[in-house]
Write a structure and sequence with these properties.
By secondary structure, the chain is α+β, with helices and mostly antiparallel strands. The protein has helices spanning 2-11, 25-37, 40-55, 118-129; strands spanning 66-73, 84-86, 91-100, 106-113. The protein contains four helices and four strands, in the order H-H-H-E-E-E-E-H. The protein starts with a helix and ends in a 7-residue tail after the last helix.
Length: 136
């Protein structure tokens, strides 16, 4: 099951387009949803990031981060409540805000309407990544 979810994330394929040697798409999807609902996917990513940083001889938890955002067009099926127009990029859709450590390992991701300014999304990224005020 873990291989099926990793294959999906790595290759960006649709659930029903997975190879036949992996578990049935519906079972893999249900497995992924259960793990996501309980926070296991997030915990797995955090553990892998800590392990990689330790292997590189760095502290397990980062002391600095890098933020960036990208506006992307929304599809016709994207609800209007979750879309916005980014005037600078001339995009009508959503904006993804990411926070990585200085080595490029992912710490946090949020998705907002494209009209949300980076200065508004940044504090939420920080809170979600470093929930303790003492950690910032």
């Amino acid at each position: 099951m873990v291989d099926a979810v990793r294959y999906l994330v790595d290759n960006g394929v649709k659930w029903r387009a997975m190879p036949v040697d992996l578990p049935a798409p519906r079972k893999a999807y249900d497995f992924f949803r259960r793990w996501s609902r309980h926070g296991y996917v997030r915990e797995l990513c955090q553990r892998l990031r800590r392990l990689q940083r330790t292997r590189e001889g760095r502290a397990a938890e980062p002391s600095a981060g890098i933020m960036d955002a990208q506006s992307v067009d929304g599809s016709e099926t994207c609800p209007a409540a979750t879309r916005g127009v980014d005037g600078n990029k001339r995009r009508d859709g959503r904006k993804r805000h990411i926070l990585t450590d200085t080595g490029g390992l992912l710490l946090e991701v949020t998705v907002t309407p494209a009209n949300v300014h980076d200065s508004v999304a940044a504090p939420e990224l920080m809170r979600r990544s470093w929930p303790s005020p003492d950690a910032c």
